[in-house]
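ugh ok fine here u go
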Amino acid sequence: MKNESDKQFPSANQIAGLIPVTFFIHQLEEYFGQFPLWYSNLLNAQLSNQDFILINGVGLFVFSALSLSYLFNRNKRILVAFGALVFANGLIHLLLSIFTLSYSPGTVSGVVLFIPLGIIIFKKISPQLREVENIMAIAAGVLVLFAVSMIAINI
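structure:
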């Protein structure tokens, strides 16, 4: 028997479908907003457009593959990890825009798509997991975001 929260929009399947779509929209905003140049200037890095496309192309493939895997195995930890990753990414864009007093390419989609998607996942999916599963999933999402940032700085 389904409870009331299972009947509400969006369903876990819809959330899984939204993840690669919102990620792609975010990538477009970053690319056309010249995120590689902004990021390189901010962190004294050498992130080229080609490197950005490679990193984010792999990311889109992985996001899509894991979202599809959710549809087959219903592992809600995947969704919570994504929730942590997108929420943290959106929040970081917003904070960097505020602290640098500049537009961090990705801030609009981060605030409009990523932060709300993360909140929805935390409110709808996280309560269905045990505390240790939530902690591990959130840690995995944040760790992936940190790892990608380190790759972008050092590429």
